[in-house]
TrEMBL record:
Belongs to the short-chain dehydrogenases/reductases (SDR) family. This is SDR family oxidoreductase. It comes from Paractinoplanes pyxinae. PANTHER family: 7-ALPHA-HYDROXYSTEROID DEHYDROGENASE (PTHR43618), 7ALPHA-HYDROXYSTEROID DEHYDROGENASE (PTHR43618:SF8). InterPro entries: NAD(P)-bd_dom_sf, SDR_fam, Sec_Metab_Biosynth_SDR. It comes from the Bacteria. Keywords: NADP, Oxidoreductase. Transmembrane segments: none annotated. SUPFAM superfamilies: NAD(P)-binding Rossmann-fold domains.
């Protein structure tokens, strides 16, 4: 048995929302590298085109704002016309923003919920028939956050507004629960729904002092590298995880164990 037998996705079709983000790029690269025709979804056509060129001919730029009904419907129509199936849907769309209870507004909560939860429903409505049409083990993968499991520690950040805002963790916690709900309802159709909860993946070029404080919060004593999320997504995307559904896989260096 080789890697192709274990995790190969040749002949399969994948969609990654938030594809130009730090984690989205490595997820898309992993899926395309395993052989999947991978649609890169985001709002910036230029960045999508550049990423598609970088990742190779298995990738397709697909400009789409997942908070806009017409955009998501058009994405579904394109997949239906070009592929006639969908095997892997990675819901990773995210907008990074700092804040606190003092600075947050009700509209912030609504916008965050629409991006995390409303977009999930739009994407499912637009592609459910395509997921059901696949002859493999169709997989939906939601991307949540450690801050949907535990609260940020204010003392890690220089100011209250530099930390994660309250609505971010609230909707990510909701996405974990929505994963469970969807797994139960979609299971009879053969569609698996799982969640990945990343820990601290701050990327390059951050404040060294902040990175050091974040690293101290994990038993491993370091922050994560974006590539360390790729194998989890690849496992959940592959038919080798065909008996895994409704679960939340935490990839956080141990942040949430203490």
């Amino acid at each position: 048995m080789n890697l192709e037998d274990l995790f190969g996705l040749s002949g399969r079709v994948a969609v990654v929302t938030g594809a130009t983000g730090r984690l989205g790029q490595v997820m898309a690269e992993a899926l395309a590298g395993a052989g999947a025709i991978t649609y890169l979804v985001g709002r910036d056509q230029g960045r999508l085109d550049a990423l598609a060129e970088k990742l190779g001919d298995r990738c397709r730029a697909a400009r789409c704002d997942v908070t806009v009904d017409e955009d998501v419907a058009a994405l579904g129509a394109r997949l239906r016309e070009e592929q006639g199936r969908l095997d892997v849907l990675v819901h990773n769309a995210h907008v990074g923003k700092g804040g606190s209870l003092r600075s947050s507004t009700p509209s912030d909560y609504l916008a965050a919920a629409d991006l995390a939860l409303g977009a999930f429903q739009r994407l499912l409505d637009a592609t459910r028939d395509l997921l059901e049409a696949t002859d493999g083990s169709p997989s939906i993968i939601n991307v949540a956050s450690m801050y949907g499991v535990v609260s940020p520690k204010p003392q890690l950040y220089d100011t209250p507004e530099a930390g994660n805002p309250p609505y971010y963790g609230a909707v990510k916690a909701g996405l974990v629960q929505l994963t469970r709900y969807a797994a139960v309802e979609l299971g009879p159709s053969g569609i698996r729904v799982n969640c990945v909860t990343p820990g601290p993946f701050p990327g390059e070029g951050g404040d060294p002092a902040l990175l050091a404080r974040l690293a101290q919060q994990t038993p491993l004593g370091r922050v994560g590298d974006a590539t360390e999320i790729a194998t989890t997504v690849l496992y959940l995307a592959s038919p080798r995880s065909s008996y895994t559904t409704g679960t939340n896989v935490v990839v956080d260096g141990g942040w949430t164990v203490w």
